[in-house]
Amino acid sequence: LWTDGGIGLYGILERLNAGEVVVGDGGYVLQLERRGYVKAGHWTPEAAVEHPEAVRQLHREFLRAGANVLQTFTFYCSEDKLEISGNVTNAACDLAREVANEGDALVAGCVSKTPCYVKSRSEAEVKAIFKKQMDDFLKKDIDFFIVEFVDHVEEAVWAVEVMKSSGKPVGATLCISPQGDMQGVPPGECAVRLVRAGADIVGVNCHLDPLTCVRTVKLMKEGLEKAGLRAHLMIQPLGFHTPECNFGGYTSLPEYPFALETRVITRWDVHKYVREAYNAGIRYIGGCCGFEPYHIRAIAEELSAERGSLPPASEKHGLWGAGLEMHTKPWVRARAHRDYWENLLPATGRPKCPSMATPADDYEKQLKSNIPS
């Protein structure tokens, strides 16, 4: 819970029920890999124990940028993925709470998909793993749970059912495309299943670019409305352009994971995404892999009128480039306005590179379709 303007104490559901906008944080795994604290391929969060100062610093940057929620750095932290999962969970919770208290933010305990699900499809085994994680989280000071980065709704439902038994609010975000989850379950049906399992907040995270994710959440909203169900909507998309909109997501792109820089969204892309999300009725808006602190600041700045304030990081940023009015060069000063940045078509500086690629999963489908039966 946090204190907001002397009005009282607010949890995640109280804030959303009041119609307020919640700004989420950004991506940790890719950011910490680039900074030298996470190993690509494993993508596990040992840094919470081995290099707590690195995780703490990234938390602080997101908080300063305007995040109202800090997620524990517990991605891929189930015991079937990481042997020291319990120790990492404890450390990650302490780090998130320490920084959250510096700005009265909430802490979300996060669980993600398990290797066990793909191997066994055993509900009992998968739920036992989630139960162990939940028990570790409940020993610490967290405000609510987020089930994230799950590409099979069945597994997400099992996770929600377990986390809901804690008595705390539960959000659930799938990494799916507008075509649905990995088993072809449409987004609308995915949302219905999650809410019926007990999820208070539903949406998508990671996998695809912001505007594609907005499309997916709109489909989830439509499904809930048709079923006569209600839930808060949440979105934390990928911070890279993925116009291919492939079923398998960005991990199927040839640039993944070490050459994604040319696809990074700009802060101005974030403004457009946030307005689209807000207009769609989404009130929990953040980012996932590729979203850096300046992207989160852009979320807070775009919604400053609705939120009634700007984040501390905006003290060093003129809205829509206003700070450029002080530049010595007149052609740079001419860029100190919204129209310029909203209408810019940024160049990549790579004349021999294509604007789009053939994702690996699509390429494999093409190969199979060309194989004589």
Sum this structure up briefly.
Helix content is 43%, strand content 11%. With 373 residues, the protein is α/β, with parallel strands linked by helices. The longest helix is centred in the N-terminal third of the chain and has 19 residues, at 85-103.
Which structural traits does this protein have?
373 residues; alpha/beta; TIM Barrel; 2 domains; eight-stranded parallel sheet; two-stranded antiparallel ribbon; 10 strands; transferase; metal-binding; zinc ion binding; BHMT-like
Tell me what the structure shows.
This protein has 373 residues and is α/β, with parallel strands linked by helices. It folds into 2 domains: 299 residues, Homocysteine-binding-like domain (TIM Barrel, Alpha-Beta Barrel); 26 residues, no CATH class. The protein contains 16 helices and 10 strands. The strands form 2 sheets. Strands 3-10-9-8-7-6-5-4 form an 8-stranded parallel β-sheet. β7, α9 and β8 form a beta-alpha-beta unit. The chain is globular, with a radius of gyration of 20 Å. The termini are far apart.
